Model the fold of this input.
Amino acid sequence: MKIFDRPARIFAWGVFVIKIGIAARDLSGESLGVKAYLEGLIDSLLEKDERNEYYIFYIGKNDLGSFPTANEVALESFHKLFWDYFVLPSAIRKNRIDVMLFPKYVIPFFVNCKKIVVVHDLGFYLPFKIYPLHDIVYIRLLLKSSIKRADHVIAVSQNTKEDIIRIIGVDENDVTVIHEAPNERYKKINDERTLNRVKKKYDLNHPFIFNPSLCDLRKNVVRLLKAFKRIEKKIPHHLFITGGTPGRIREVNRIIDELNIGKRVRIQSTLLSEDMPAIYNLADLCVYPSLYEGFGFPILEAMSCGCPVVTSKTSSMPEVAGDAAVLVNPYEEKEISDAMYKVLTNDELKRSLIKKGLRRVKKFSWEKTAETTLEIFKMVIQ
Done:
């Protein structure tokens, strides 16, 4: 390997130093999941690994300072695809990177080092549309090539690994499952002043059910609204939904009007990320009946905050939730409504779910994610 031929890259006592690059364009992107992955992984790698050199490649200068202990490289480009396929490969060669992590599905061509690609889900191949058409076309064109050219593939769940093997057709030994984890800010909050501040800020004067769906139809918000309609007269709770794009909010509001539940449903279009832990702490229940997930961050975020969870029994969600949530068929409105009502009216079940959730979330940590990822870095350059 070339790395062994670079004397300047070896400590005096003979320990090899790996130059590790991470494509961090999505720190500024729209994908909250990939952003959470990058933040959690890079922070833990830098804290754990003082031996190797890390190069974090940004698009533009806005993210400079995010990881000050790493070598931060700001690369200007007029378009993200030009950045991916021309600017970034050039910078990789210039900085003589040994192994490069691509955190979102695609590896550009002409990368002259070891390559690891992260696959979060295979939703682009589902029969129902959960991504914009241009994203579906783009990923379908390039994902298989990227996986074939990768020296190793990381899947964020066992479900995603099985999808990769089944759909793309790769050897199972070429894919390693490395789970993600919730941010450490998600935890039980005992400070009443913090909780009251958030409660007042978002006018949360009624007991409420929390749905962190961003009004994304893939998150099954329509069936959730219909399920809530079934039990609204039996419970005092309101339904609090995180907002998304204006188009999504308009569509969800249209359904709310059709169901005549506008007085009991709130869509919060602007919700600061630093307030999310308090929202989970204040909620009596987190309902996340998504149709498909590659991992499912909200499940662990809620559990970390002591909030009981109802989620789907499909894709990766049972893998993440274990026995610490009530699992439902996301296509059955009655099953969703029955589960919500059962948790909200059964204190013993609610306490059990909270206890199990706090225990379950300890199985996931960014420290573990970083440890396993670092082993993959070492493996591919041997």
Remarks:
- The longest helix spans residues 32-48.
